[in-house]
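subagent[fold] <- orchestrator: predict structure for attached chain, return C-alpha cells only, no commentary.
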Amino acid sequence: MAEFSQKRGKRRGGEGLGGAVDFLLANARLVLGVGGAAVLGIATLAVKRLIDRATGPRDEDDAKGDGWTELSLLKAAPHQRPRPPPAALSLPEPRRPPAPSTPEGPADAGPQPPPLLSPPAPLCLTFQEKLLAFERAHVAIPEAQVALAKQLAGDIALELQAYLRNKFPELPFGALVPGGPLYDGLQAGAADQDHVRLSVPLALEPGLWSLVPGVDTVARDPRCWAVRRTQLEFRPRGSSPWDRFLVGGYLSSRLLLGLLHKALTASVNWPAIGGLLGCLIRPSVATEEPLLEVRHERLELTVAVLLAVAGASTGADRQLLAWPLEGLAGNLWLHDLYPEEAARLRALDEQDAGSRRRLLLLLCGVCRGHPALARLGRGPLTQVVLRAGEQDVDWTEEALGERFLQALELLLRSLEQASLPCHFNPAVDLLDGLGDQDIDEAGYALYCGLQAPEALL
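subagent[fold] -> orchestrator:
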C-alpha cells in the first residue's frame, strides 16, 4: 500500500511536470521551430529524470518506459550538425581513409587525398648517352679551374726565367713556355691529372750541333737522339757556352738535368715565390724528375720543368727533352712525341669536324679510373686514337660510342700481340715499358669491358 501511494504521488508529480513541459514545448515550437523544440524537449526530459532520481527510487517498468520514450524522441528529432569552434581554437582532425567496400555517390563525395604516385620507371639509356653523361661528370674541367692553372703556370714560368737568367747569365736559355694537355684541350678529369709542361729551350748555335738517331749509338735506343758537337776544327771546344756539358763529343742531357735539379731543389726561393703568387710550391726531391708540386686553395698542380732542344737549332723538325734515362741512354735526349701527336689530332679533327680529341679524353678518363688500365698511360691511348683516326669512318658526335668501342678493340688487339708501334716511328714500341703481368691484367680488363661496356663508366 505504501509502495502504491508512492507510485501514485510520483505519477501526479509527473503529470504536473508533464503539463509544464507540454506548455513549454508548445510555446517553444512557435519560437524555435520543430527542430529546436525537439532539442529543448530532450533537454527538459533529461532534467526531469535527474529530479526523479533524486526524489525517490524507481521501478524497472518506469525505467524501461522512460528509456524507450527517450529513444523514440531521439530518433524522431532531426540531427543537427553542431557548429564548429572558431578556427583559432579548433584542432586539426586526422583524415580518415575512405572505406574501399562502400562506394560513395557523387553527392556525398568530399575532397579526397591525391592518390599516391608510383616512382617513375628508370630510363633505359643507350651506351652513347651514358658515355656522354660520363664525359660531363668525369672528363670536363671547369673553365675557372683551367684559367687558374694557366695563370699559376705562367707566373711560375716568369719567376723561374728571371732566376735562370740571373743565376746562369752565360747560358743562353730561351723564353720559358708553358704548355701541355691543359693548354691544348686534352686534359681529362682535373687540372692535376697531367703535368703542366714548362719548356726551357736551349739556344744552341746554328751549324755547331747535329742529331744522331739513338739506334746508331751504343745505346741502340730508338726513343732517343744524341746531340753531337760539330765544326770543332773551325770552332774549337770552349767557344760555345754549352761545351762544358759535353761528354765524348755529345751534349749530355744528364749533366744539364743535374744542374737544373740542383737549382730547383736548393737555390730557388720557392717560399717567397709561392707567397707572392698565393700558393705553396715545393720541388720534388724524391725523384730525379724536375717536378714542382703546386698547391692552391682551389686546386693542386704538378709542373714539369723540361730542358728542351728545339728542332730549329739542329735542322730537324722534332723536339728533344732532357729526362732521366737509365743505362747507356743516360746522356741521350728523349724524343718528345706529344707536340706531334697533338698537332696531328688537331689537323684530323679540323678536316671533318671530328671528335678524335674527345675520344682521347674519354679513354684517358675511363682508364685512369680502372686500376689495371691506369698503367697504360696517355702514350698508348693517343697512338690508338691516331691509328683509328686515320680511318675514313664517321667521326661525328653521334658515332662517338661506336668509335669508343672500336678504340678499345684496337687496344685489346695490341695487348694480345704485346706490341703497339708508334705512329711516327714504328721502331718504338709503346708497350715496351710494361711487364707481362701488367699487359695480361690490362687485356683481361679490356676483354671484360667489351662484354659489358657500361661497367667501365
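orchestrator: received. Logging for downstream: The mean pLDDT is 81. The chain is about 45% helix and 10% strand.
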